[in-house]
Amino acid sequence: MLLTNACQAGSDPEDFPMPKRNVLDAPAELARALPRVLAAWARESRGYQQMRQLYDAHISAASLRVEAVAFLRAHHAAHLRGGGRDHHVPYRQLYSAVYSRGGSE
For residues 47 and 19, is the Cβ–Cβ distance under 8 A? Predict the structure, then answer.
């Protein structure tokens, strides 16, 4: 599962063939998108078949978990330092979802 922003790469379906609903226009959208994705994981993941085919040889579930955890830690650390708003991101729920799918701390 990938959520990205509407940057040049994230907006390019050649690089990231993914559902447009998961290309976020603003950081505040992350707080709404995460619960939706976690609640409907099977339905949401079906929209990534083309991306899986494109990146399957280069990216694994394990490498994506490592990157997701690194992102969440950096995002949370920035919030704790006062460098950004957390937009009510449910960190515990996210870590739990990542680790329950085979990740490790």
Answer: yes
4 pairs with which residues across the strands?
23
Q: 100 burial class (0-12, 13-18, 19+ CB within 10 angstroms)?
A: exposed
Q: Give the tens place of pLDDT for each residue, 28-64.
A: 888 889 899 999 999 998 998 888 887 777 777 777 7
Phi, psi of 30 (to 5 degrees): -60, -40
In angstroms, rounded to a whole number, what is the distance separating the alpha carbons of residues 40 and 32?
Answer: 13
Cβ-in-10-Å burial (0-12, 13-18, 19+) of 42 comes to: exposed
Going by the DSSP 8-state scheme, the letter that residue 22 receives in this structure is G
Residue listed under structure tokens 């922003």 = 5
User: Which tokens in the block code for residue 76?
Assistant: 């949370």
Query: What pTM does this model have?
Result: 0.52
